Amino acid sequence: MKLAARETIDSFVKVVFRTTGLLVIVILGGIFVMLMWNTIAFFAHIKPLDFITGTQWNPAGSHASYGIMPLMVSTGIVTLGSMMIAIPLGIGTAAFMSEYANSRLRNILKPMVEMLAAIPSVAIGFLGIVIVGPEIAKLTHQANGLNALNGAILLAIMALPTIITVTEDALQALPATYREASYSVGANRWQTLRKVIIPAAAPGIIAAVMLGVGRAIGETMTVLMATGNASAFPKGFFHSVRTITATIAIEMGEVPYQTTHYYALFAIAAVLFLITLLVNLAGEYFVNRYRKYQAA
Amino acid sequence: MMKKLSPVIEWFTLLFCTGTVLLFLIAILWDLVVRGWPSLSWQFITALPSEGMTKGGILPAITGTVILTLLTAVLAVPLGISCAIYLNEYAKDNWVTRLIRASIRNLSGVPSIIYGLFGLALFVQGMHMGTSMLAAGFTLGLLSLPYIISTTEEALRRIPASTREAALGVGATQFESIRDVVLPSALPGILTGVVLTLSRAAGETAPILFTGVAFYINGSSGYLNQEFMALPYHLYMLSTQHQAIEQVRPLAYGTALVLVMVVFLLNLTAFYIRYKYRNNE
Predict the structure, then answer these.
(1) pTM
(2) 8 Å CB contact of B259 and A123
(3) Interface of A with B in 105-134 (CB under 8 A)
């Protein structure tokens, strides 16, 4: 082939590659615009203040009400519960893998954590129905165990691999000199871990928690299957809740196109999108802080 | 006394955390295998469902998931690799590049149900695809895109600059250097990322809920313009929506086991590629 032809191909292909790069921005922008467009259509019917402060979500009633509060509180309860389980377990496991386990044990543990991450959310939700639910029902003497606690346990399992992996990376990334300095002044392994390693890796650990929170808030199938989805205002861990994601999943399939209810589901999705965006940005901020810290 | 005991207690605390996490994994796999295995049979994976889903097999759900995953790959793999090539080989460090990278990171954090809504608005309604295999596959393709881009970029980054310089030095254009030298050496790494991403897509349920999946279709899934059955959705319906839930529990367990086996098989393939590649280095 002539050089001129090859150079034409070269510059043409470069344009193709660049276009696909820009396409990513278009997709994120598209998602944002789609959510906002439908949310604005929703606010043409319902006052934003009623939406944000309303304590009842009942789109099907004769006096339809679209208050996002019960959904937000539900998502909040389940996420909080999952983090109360996953944060100590995740950090403890990561500390064990990074500071106590030898390399052979670590090479066994790492793939096992990856296996846990690979299990589809719908399979975890199924086990929430057949194992976790009946156990909770037995312990609390309730008719069924489909409640916020069940969802929190399952979400903890789903968030654990993320928290463990990112925390372990943060611990491993610390220079060996930190540990050596601590040992040389007479600290033992536990003191080193608590007073030196964990504080030094704190930004990375916070980033790990943020990513875990982001996963838990956005997870749909496990909470849809395990939390019972009662539409009443959530009362606590032992009551049924209905998260933002579960509400979208349940109602989107049945709602007629371009009704207030249809727009309402995009509006709660927009709220969900903004929350996860903020959580992920916060996580990213801490990852970057921790990188700077490493470089210094 | 306390001084001697405390390291042991501390060690046990961390061991307890690790043990609990492992227990979760073992309990999940144990329960699925022990209670799912009796449902598995040749007939279960090769027959159509019968008698209102209370008997028969899950063949249409298996073929549906396989075709859906291939469709996901058709959209996400070329776009993802191309975007990664742009970022790693061409892009200068300017605000556009930083915006692309920020978009990729944020896309990978967007909840899967929002991809489902986007697929509904864009493919099902906007492009008039209707609820179909095509719309669902494209939706999963968008969801998979950020993961394929980041894993591909990582594979490309591992190729040393001297490899590219050697190709350019003997007169190749930049595209020829990428096509004939860079991509072939990064291929195992790219493939690992692609297979891992597809294993995740195969297990996704939320994005296909409104874009084309159905609990029951007549015959087998396979037409791109029609609704289809898929393993994850089949499991969801069998375990929550069926009118004879206790009666179909064994079928639900069987479906769950097949789904987890499909996902693990894809994961093992990815680990195998990674392992072989490391040994060749």
Answers:
(1) 0.91
(2) yes
(3) 109, 111-116, 118-127, 129-131
Cα gap A32→A34, rounded to integer Å: 6
d(C-alpha B72, C-alpha B42), whole Å: 28
Cβ(A245)–Cβ(B111) under 8 Å?
Answer: yes
ipTM comes to 0.91
Whether the CB-CB separation of B220 and B60 falls below 8 Å is answered with yes
Query: What three-state secondary structure class fits A241?
Result: strand
Question: Would you call A280 and B105 a contact, using CB atoms and an 8 Å cutoff?
Answer: yes
Chain A residues within 8 A of B89 when measuring between CB atoms = 17
CATH number of B61-228: 1.10.3720.10
Whole-angstrom distance, CA of residue A104 vs CA of residue B77: 35
Per residue in B255-279, pLDDT (tens digit) is 999 999 999 999 999 888 888 876 6
Residue pointed to by tokens 């209905």: A242
Task: Give residue B250's Cα distance to chain centre.
Answer: 26
CA A34 to the chain's CA centroid: 22
Per-residue confidence band for B195, with pLDDT thresholds at 50, 70 and 90: very high
Interchain contact, B99 vs A160, CB within 8 Å: no
Q: What is the mean pLDDT of chain B?
A: 88
CB-based contact (8 Å) between A42 and chain B? no
Cβ A188 vs Cβ B11: under 8 Å: no
Domain residue spans of chain B: 61-228
Return the residue of A nearest to B115 by Cα.
Answer: A31
Contact A130 B109 (CB under 8 A): no
Using only C-alpha atoms, what is the Rg of chain B? 23
User: Please, are residues B131 and B212 in contact by the beta-carbon 8 Å criterion?
Assistant: yes
Interface probe for A, chosen from B17, B144, B263 (most Cβ of A below 10 Å), is B17
Question: Which range among A138-147, A266-275, B223-232, B238-247 has the greatest average pLDDT?
Answer: A266-275
Report the distance separating Cα A291 and Cα A287, nearest Å.
6
Instruction: Nearest chain A residue to B234 by CA: give it.
Output: A122
